[in-house]
Amino acid sequence: MNYDQVFDSAIERLHTEGRYRVFIDILRNKGAYPNARCFAGHNGPKPITVWCSNDYLAMGQHPKVIGAMEEALHDVGAGSGGTRNIGGNTHYHVDLEAELADLHGKQGALLFTSGYVSNDATLSTLAKILPGCVIFSDELNHASMIAGIRNSGAEKRVFRHNDVDHLEELLTETDPALPKLIAFESVYSMDGDVAPIHAICDLAEKYNALTYIDEVHAVGMYGARGGGISERDEAAHRIDIIEGTLGKAFGVMGGYIAADARIVDVIRSYAPGFIFTTSLSPVLAAGVLAAVRHLKASSVEREGQQAAAAFLKKAFAEAGLPVMPSTTHIVPLMVGDPVRAKKVSDILLAEYGVYVQPINYPTVPRGTERLRFTPGPAHTEAMMIELTDALVEIWQRLELDMRKAA
Fold first, then answer.
1. Using only C-alpha atoms, what is the Rg of the chain?
2. Residue 243 contacts residue 115 (beta carbons within 8 Å)
3. Is residue 222 very low, low, confident or very high in pLDDT (cuts 50, 70, 90)?
4. DSSP 33-72
5. SS3 category, 371
6. Model pLDDT for residues 349-406, shown as the tens digit of each residue
7. Crossing angle for the helix pair 381-397 and 338-352, nearest 10 degrees?
8. 123-172 pLDDT, tens per residue?
9. Catalytic one of 64, 106, 206, 248
10. Contacts for 260 with CB less than 8 Å, ≥ 6 apart
């Protein structure tokens, strides 16, 4: 076996398909988001504007968050010291879990090192605890949810995206005596659409199924206190397990679940992805704690972000750019080809100082490659007009389709 040849061939396939991923070398400017410095392809840092961050509300730049992290760093030091069971539990972790439980109106919450880990660890553990569990999964669920379901070893039944009729069809075909879990997202981040939460909960109650919702692209963003779409739609009390991230709208790092105290205790006690992992640094926990508390009380950031997203969608549409329909803060622009999507991204960065990464397979289906813009409260209307003009020029230069959004 020529190992080097196998590895080279694997990478070459990605280059051939036009979906080899390149990480851009940048540093954000503290307190000046979305301004950043790019170090790739030229001498010294070049000023750029970031358009694709999941730090949707720029909370990673907020003085309260930075101040809380600095205070924690000088109070307790950098690392957590171990797993939660052995030296890695601090008062910051306890306070943060209490805040997250309160945010979603649940009895308890449990922290993980990332949203990926929280999905993988919780879904795989739940299904193993429930004998014969059948998991019903939306076809567009996150890779982390798919991994958790696969690692559980449970039977999986995939329903068409947001199709409650298909979901019910699958539920009726399942033995009523078996435990059932419906796993879905609130905001689907590549298309920007939203799940019919109440309709799914109606089916869950009808067929005695547990519900698991991934709110990673919605927590902090929606609801009067930032509890997500489930708060906005007054559905949180109907969901058994709410999963979220601390690395997007809250601006720092980590993941969590919020649920009934019994469920939280089971995951805490049985999930290897929680038990055997060094806990979040208390510095990170302190920063998130400040972000959650701030966004519970302030809607300014949410309102600014929604206004920016609406303005950019309108600007793209009026310019004839193929902006995809979105009812959320996500602004996807269809390209439909991985090589061209990368080319547009490269031109934007090199010539216009605009940083937006192409989104390719397997994140989205082949033939639906796109650019995904996430304007925030700090992106000005002038920035968005300049961005639109740049995209129109590039679209015309590359002779891309200005008409179709799909």
1. 22
2. yes
3. very high
4. TTEEEE-SSSSS-EEEEE---S-TT-GGG-HHHHHHHHHH
5. strand
6. 999 999 999 999 888 889 999 999 999 999 999 999 999 999 999 999 999 977 654 4
7. 130
8. 999 999 999 999 999 999 999 999 999 999 999 999 999 999 999 999 99
9. 248
10. 106, 107, 108, 240
CA angle at residue 330 from 258 to 368, to 5 degrees? 110
Which pTM was predicted? 0.95
Per the annotation, the verdict on 206 as an active-site residue is no
CA atoms within a 13 Å half-sphere pointing along the CA-CB vector of 112: 23
CA 352 to chain centroid, in Å, comes to 27
Structural contact between residues 24 and 51, judged by C-beta atoms closer than 8 angstroms:
no
Q: Please, which residues have CB within 8 angstroms of residue 254's CB and are 6 or more apart in sequence?
A: 111, 112, 113, 114, 115, 245, 246, 247, 280, 284, 285, 288
Strand boundaries in 204-291, DSSP class E: 210-214, 241-245, 255-259
**Alpha carbons 194 and 217: distance in angstroms, whole number:** 10
Chain centre to alpha carbon of residue 40: 26
Instruction: Please report, for the chain, how many H helices and E strands are present, in that order.
Output: 14, 16
Give per-residue pLDDT as tens, 262-286.
999 999 999 999 999 999 999 999 9
- What is the rounded CA–CA span in Å between residue 84 and residue 268? 10
Report d(CA 155, CA 149) in Å as an integer: 8
Quick check: 71 pLDDT over 60? yes
Looking at the DSSP assignment, which residues form a beta bridge with residue 252? none
Cα separation, 224 vs 158, in Å, equals: 32
Tell me the per-residue pLDDT of 205-218, one tens digit each, with 9 for 90 and over.
999 999 999 999 99
Q: Could you write out the DSSP letters of every residue in 109-131?
A: EEEESSHHHHHHHHHHHHHHHST
60 CA to centre of own chain:
15
What percentage of the chain's residues is helix, strand, coil (to nearest 5)? 45, 15, 40
Question: Which residue type sits at 28?
Answer: R
Tokens of 56: 């949707």
What tokens appear for 170 in the block? 């699958």
